[in-house]
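anyone seen this seq b4? input:
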Amino acid sequence: MESSGNCDKNPKQAFGSELAPEALLVSVHSSEEIVGSAHSIISLLDTYGVAIVQFEKEEPPRNQLLCFKELFGKTMSHDRSDDDDITEVAVIDESSVYPGISSRAYTFHTDGSYDVNPPPIVALRCEIPARQGGITQLASGKKLHDWLSSTDKEALESLYREDALFINRAAKSFSGAVFRTYLNNRLAIRYRADEAVRSPENSNVRRAVGLVHDFLSEEKNLVSFRLEAGQVLLTDNFTVLHGRTAFESDDPRKLHRLWFDGISSSEEQACIGFAPNE
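predicted toks r here
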């Protein structure tokens, strides 16, 4: 388990458009050498909640995802994952209400938002980038929390309510808070805003959701980039929200995703979640 003492020294930095995607890159020759780059990768995750690993060697996608078990612990399953818990991300059904399996824009979210125990770490490997569109977008949950705290504290407090977020997806239902205490003084965010989410009944929550939408609509709060073939996007799923822009329905865009529980036997542990500004 991660050391709370060490994590107290890593409150995470809020980020926006001023953060260059290049600053998040870690080049690794192959999956067999991932442990040698553990410090660089975990340092980025502890600073921003995100890292991009660029593999130089061509290898099967499976190898370049499963290698992260040495850094981030056991894998976690998804309802569409295979025996190794890997999920292919591609256009499956354009008529689906779920944008993740279509070419439509996928609004900001955290993975597994409808699960009682969502994954702390998400790895997303690009095999075939979109010809046009399909741009990855990231937003800092810490920056969002700090902005809400300074803008409308009553709205922020409403997002800690257990009925702030209600999701009904794939025969699963979940009701819970958008922000919650995760470990000691660290917080975690859970968020989704597509057709699977029911409109909140509480007026303060509705106002807060509107403010979150406004925040995520401002380019200055986002980091946007094209995830290239052979790159793996790693996110602290309790700190960073992600989404993507639309792309053509006949585009062969393909990625693979793997979830991790964030608990490894490695000497260096990633600090999950974030500490709010006092």
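The first strand starts at residue 25 and ends at 28. Confidence is low (pLDDT under 50) at residues 1-5. kinda curious what u guys think
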